[in-house]
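Figure S7 source data.
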Amino acid sequence: MCGLIAITGTPGSAYDVFFGLMNLQHRGQDGAGILTIDTKKKGNFHLTKGSGLVENVFSERSFKTLTGHAALGHSRYATVGRNDPNMLQPFLDYDRGLGLGHNGNIVNFYKLREELYHSKTRKPLWVESDSELMLKLLCDELEPGPIDFQNAQGAVKRLMSKLVGSYSVICLTGEGDIFGFRDPDGIRPLCLGRRMQEDGSTVYALASESIALNFLGFTDVEDVQTGELVYISKGGVIERKVIRQDSISPCMFEWVYFARVESEIDETSVYNARFKLGQVLARQLQKENISADVVVPVPETSRVSAIAVAETLGIPFRELLIKNRYVNRTFILDDQESRQEAIRRKLFPIGHEFEGKSCLIVDDSIVRGNTSMQIVKLIRLAGAKEVILLSTCPPLVSPCYYGIDFPSAKELVAHDRTNDEIAEILGVDRVIFQTISGLKEALESETLCLGCLTGEYPTDISSGRDFEAMRTRDRESGVKKHSSC
Ligand code: SF4
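Tokens for the predicted iron/sulfur cluster complex:
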């Protein structure tokens, strides 16, 4: 997963993008980049990229060179190729005068790469990134001459006919225009915002999540539609068209875990969705006459759901697992060992409050089970009488081919196991998962990507099987070849 933001038509656009990226940091912590264009000198792009958190990549000095009225920013979380700074985005094609940032994963990357860019007649890719491939394809599909809405429309249409997978994309042109598009199944989010300037003009921006735009004073934020292209000229003229729609399948995991709780995605508030996930789960417990002395959230993502569980069941809500805020999210760390070490450093229990109590521990999801196992150990050591683990997400049983880092089924603790078996592995008395119908009820949608829950995906994933095998091989051999975001 990655964070994207672009803005045009305002001086100091790089500052806006920087503060936007700060609000998208949760979507990727491997590195960040900002690309600007100084339209006074046509084609004069400025690019700064670096590994690490957004605030560490950019300094006052960076902004002296990041001049121009239009900027594109990217924060990176990579499924593979994490430590390679060459993989950082935005990517820029100097010849065509086009920069690109991508959030998602191209399932048929390997196939396309072989067909298009490893033949003798084509230039090889500089890095093994599906985002770079996308930029090259897009540049190839654009007609010669200036990039405008018409030109972009044709190119994106042809691009969509080639790509399989998830992609929200934002581009910055040498003219100072920006444009963005969302894949034909709408798997990854993208939104559009408007802001009135003091001089009465309107500025437009595109971003992965509404929080980034709201923070910057954009008050009129709406979703880019599934398969839609939105083109914004540097003069503030906006043109949009749905290029292609195959299905409406936004990733359910955005609401369950990934997105900021302040965001709204596809007209559904992340906060409301998480609250309802808790309410629906609590009703499930009521039906089974399950109760406890205390409801405890696993911070941070599950807090809202845990409040709803406690309210619905009439059980005290207590924050008894304390997070060290200086340790980053464990789910997006690089490998199993660093994840386990981070969990140990990240959470600490208020020991005496657990003693002799029956506890409902609420987590947003159970992926590999590492976090749960560590937490349960801590709670047991503190003397809890009973530990019931609630997951606001249904069991994750299949890989994600669209950019979430649980690529192999065997890594998923719920794959091919009963709830009793999972409870035994995690060391809890009982584990209770959200149901798929409960998830749909909470998200108020029947049209979601549920691939990792059901094994049924919105796109063809046959070439993704190769992708999974190659990634496993790369991981085992320590070679990190393919990068997606
Ligand atoms: S497979 Fe799961 S994690 Fe991946 S996009 Fe679909 S719902 Fe999201």
